[in-house]
Recover the amino acids of this structure.
């Protein structure tokens, strides 16, 4: 068991930065670190797998990689800008305003007219009764959001 | 570094000597091993056709800042992966240290002050807090490392446990001192200047924040540690074969512990940076950061088999992963679907890593 462990760890696997390590001397086998919860290792023991088994596994992996890569690309193509980022306008008592779909980093268009008797539209804000008005020239959309109408009463209040 | 031109020439000379079947294998292997890069190119071209803003200066600066924010952490986790381990506690350590730095560095006039007696912190205080979070991150990392190195427990389970402990501590922290889990914001000017201020030249009229500069410094330090120090060499030796390393006189215990400690230090640093970057910190800050960092390492060629990986590879991995994420963002792909695609790409990267390991002669 100890022997196998050593063989596996010491298997030739040259990497770009692999340190040259002299192989462990036979008589001097000390208990090294042996990971594995309940003795289960995440990686198969290469030396225990036959040449053929390895070839089979790598071929299967090749197929899996190809299929997954294709799937990712297809999913990307199938879910295009159909939805985009939706910005809805809540007129808060005014007449309804159409929502807009934009792409990340784009600005919004000025929304259509909305009217509410007795009030003037001051602008749109990201929060109901928000202070900061949305700047349709400068502000860009980075997430799905709702803009709320900001109303100021007409004329002097009774 | 090999000269790319000569290496291409060598490859083409070797290619000419292959027979038909080997030629086919050459292409199949090439495509499969580089599937991630091919996907990246497809993503970029497709995104550009749909939303040309992806090559605007603001998008590039955005990418740069995201890479700078994620790189130190990925370099820390990279060390753990070189040791065939992993670190799941990273994100929560970031959360805790981010909360701590925010609480200690709130401005004097902040609305919801965590420590009411603290005045307006200056740059000295910022550096002091930086030191503090580095020590805290390092301590948690050291605990991880101790259990992994001394008792040979699997890092997965050790760091899962510390992840929970740290998250618990983080929640307690946010709920104590009369804070009731409120976000901690209102950071001091000195702190914001230190992290998100800009002394670098502008790019396309856009300021590049200071933490990009710090990330470069961290990158250079880590490059030095991995490549030029005995500790770095020992790390690779332990990663590829702990028994052999032990026999040849490497202190496996110390090396393992130090790798985890160093990783912890990078999380502490990331916590401080994230704190100022996000500005409004909650207990969930940093959630799942480790998954991105681990994925970046795997994409960048730090193998879970152990003993392989380069600092440059980690950088490449972080950049590639971020480009894919930014593409998804610019395509405005549904947030929920983004997770599916991210997961598939990570699985893909692991499969490629495994396949390379199997076919290696």
């Amino acid at each position: 068991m100890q022997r196998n462990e050593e063989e596996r760890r010491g298997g030739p696997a040259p990497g770009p930065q692999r340190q040259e390590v002299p192989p462990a001397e036979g008589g001097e086998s000390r208990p090294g670190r042996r990971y594995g919860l309940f003795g289960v290792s995440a990686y198969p023991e290469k030396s225990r797998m036959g040449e053929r088994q390895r070839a089979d596994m790598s071929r299967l992996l090749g197929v899996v990689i190809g299929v997954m890569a294709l799937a990712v690309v297809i999913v990307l193509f199938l879910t295009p800008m159909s939805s985009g980022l939706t910005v809805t306008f809540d007129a808060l008592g005014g007449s309804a305003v159409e929502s807009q779909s934009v792409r990340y980093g784009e600005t919004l268009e000025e929304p259509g007219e909305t009217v509410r008797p007795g009030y003037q539209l001051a602008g749109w804000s990201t929060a109901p009764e928000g202070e900061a008005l949305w700047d349709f020239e400068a502000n860009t959309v980075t997430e799905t959001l709702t803009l709320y109408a900001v109303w100021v009463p007409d004329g002097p209040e009774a | 570094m090999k000269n790319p031109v000569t290496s291409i020439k060598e490859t083409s000379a070797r290619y000419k000597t292959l027979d038909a079947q080997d030629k086919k294998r050459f292409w199949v292997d090439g495509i499969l091993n580089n599937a991630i890069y091919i996907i990246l190119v497809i993503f970029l071209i497709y995104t550009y056709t749909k939303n040309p803003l992806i090559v605007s200066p603001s998008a590039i600066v955005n990418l740069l800042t995201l890479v700078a924010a994620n790189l130190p952490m990925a370099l820390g986790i990279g060390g753990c992966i070189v040791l065939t381990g992993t670190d799941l506690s990273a994100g929560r350590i970031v959360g805790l240290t981010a909360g701590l730095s925010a609480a200690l560095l709130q401005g004097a006039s902040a609305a919801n002050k965590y420590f009411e007696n603290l005045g307006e912190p200056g740059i000295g205080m910022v550096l002091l807090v930086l030191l503090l979070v580095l020590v805290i991150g390092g301590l948690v990392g050291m605990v991880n490392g101790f259990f992994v190195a001394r008792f040979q427990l699997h890092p997965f389970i050790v760091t899962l446990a510390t992840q929970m402990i740290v998250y618990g501590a983080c929640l307690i922290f946010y709920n104590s001192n009369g804070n009731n889990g409120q976000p901690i914001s209102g950071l001091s000017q000195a702190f914001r200047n230190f992290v998100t201020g800009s002394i670098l030249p502008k790019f396309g009229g856009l300021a590049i924040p200071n933490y990009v500069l710090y990330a470069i410094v961290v990158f250079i330090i880590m490059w030095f540690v991995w490549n030029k120090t005995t500790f770095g060499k020992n790390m690779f030796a332990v990663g590829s074969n702990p028994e052999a390393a032990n026999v040849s006189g490497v202190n496996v215990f110390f090396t393992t512990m130090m790798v985890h400690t160093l990783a912890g230090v990078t999380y502490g640093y990331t916590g401080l940076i994230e704190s100022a970057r996000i500005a409004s910190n909650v207990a969930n800050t940093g959630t799942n950061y480790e998954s991105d960092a681990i994925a970046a390492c795997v994409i960048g060629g730090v193998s879970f088999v152990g003993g392989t990986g380069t600092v440059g590879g980690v950088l490449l991995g972080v950049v590639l992963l971020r480009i894919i994420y930014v593409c998804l963002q610019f395509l405005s792909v549904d947030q929920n679907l983004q997770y599916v695609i991210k997961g598939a790409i990570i699985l893909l990267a692991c499969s490629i890593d495994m396949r390379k390991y199997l076919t290696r002669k």
About this structure: Chain A touches chain B through 58 residues (CB under 8 Å). Strands of chain A lie at 85-90, 100-102, 119-125, 145-153.
